Amino acid sequence: MKLVHSTLAPCCAIPRRGDILAQALLHPDREFSLSDLRHLTGHGLSMVHKEVNLLVDGGILLDRRAGRTRQVSANPDHPLIGPLTTMVEATYGALPVIAEALEQSDWRRGRIRLRILGRSTLGRVRPATARH
After folding, report:
1. Which residues contact 50 (CB under 8 A, 6 or more apart)?
2. CA angle (72, 49, 28) in 5-degree steps
3. CA–CA distance from 88 to each of 17, 45, 67, 111 (Å)?
4. Beta-carbon contacts of residue 89 (< 8 Å; ≥ 6 apart)
5. What is the pLDDT along the chain (132 residues), one digit of tens a residue?
6. What's the CA gap between 74 and 77, in Å, rounded?
7. pTM higher than 0.85
8. Could you state, in order of their start, the residue ranges of all structural domains in the chain?
9. What are the counts of helices (DSSP H) followed by strands (DSSP E) for the chain?
10. Distance spanning both ends of the chain, measured CA to CA
11. Which end of the chain is less packed: N or C, by CB atoms within 10 Å?
12. Alpha-helical runs (H) found in 27-67
């Protein structure tokens, strides 16, 4: 008897896979290089490559080549993207979005305030005016 894997199998049970999913699903309008994902998740490039391959094979992520760089993004047409995004929001929260907002701000020069007004603003967290 042949074992049949669930379509959910490529996205469950491995924390580094969840870290990659959190980046891709919480930023659905963005493409990531494997180096971007390595930097954002803190995982080694070979592990990122392995996990991305599994997520692309499962249809959860899309990939394309831009020169020598492989770009990946969430597949908006996958039937599980909505439920997966809800699951990622509930388990990873706003951490990837806040990290990106801080990275884009000039937080090293002074204090910074973030306003997070609830779950509906999760994808739109932006730095408030910095105080110097």
Report:
1. none
2. 25
3. 11, 22, 31, 29
4. 26, 119, 122
5. 333 333 444 455 577 888 899 899 988 999 999 999 999 888 999 999 999 999 999 999 999 999 999 999 999 999 999 998 888 887 776 666 676 667 766 666 666 666 666 554 444 444 444 444
6. 9
7. no
8. 13-92, 93-132
9. 5, 3
10. 67
11. N
12. 34-41, 45-57
* CA-to-CA separations, 113 to 52, 78, 99, 107, 116, in angstroms, rounded: 34, 36, 13, 9, 10
Task: Report whether 16 contacts 47 (CB < 8 A).
Answer: yes
Angle at 122 between CA 53 and CA 82, to 5 degrees: 50
Query: How many whole angstroms from its chain centre is CA 75?
Result: 12
Closest CA to 41 of 74, 9, 122, 33: 33
Q: Which residue has the tokens 């891709």?
A: 24
- Which 3 state secondary structure label does DSSP give 50? helix
